[in-house]
Write a structure and sequence with these properties.
By secondary structure, this protein is mostly helical. It is built from 10 helices and no strands. The protein has 2 domains: 5-55; 58-179, no CATH class. The N and C termini lie close together (9 Å).
Length: 185
Amino acid sequence: MKITEKWIKKHHPCPDGVRWLREQFEQSERDGKSLVRKLMKEKRYEWANWMIVRIMKYKEYVQYAVYAAEQVIDIYEKQYPNDEKPRKAIKAAKKCIKRNTAANRYAARVAVYADVSSYSPYSAVKAAYSSAYLAAYSADYSDYSAAYSADAVYLAICAVAAENNFAAKEKMQIKILKYGMKLIK
């Protein structure tokens, strides 16, 4: 996907992101996938995550969010082994990937609203929980679905970091981004 000035205006990157993109344009780099690779090489993982979901199509960014949530769901399940709500949210999002219907999107929305009070990355457990819910929310196909996918990934990374495992945080960021790169056609 070609990144243009019109694309920048539509997606509203932060001012530093706009400057970075314009610097890339000066070097004739406008391919979205190549820009994500460059961001990864520069270790700007949050920016790469922001961009990758915005160049993905619906099915791709929901798969990306689900993948991220599945990487950390065990953090939540270790503390709450009998709570199936996050797994149900992931399952609802997966149904939307297979069949993007109004009924499946509604089911994803219902799964999300089962317990909205947990949208808080203050601990690894809550971040893992919220990542699963945001994966389902991204499947709801609202105007901000791609952003919710990026948030699901961000919270998955927060879950790893909140366990005081900062070495694992970077590895997880790279792992999830590489998975996302494979999804882009």
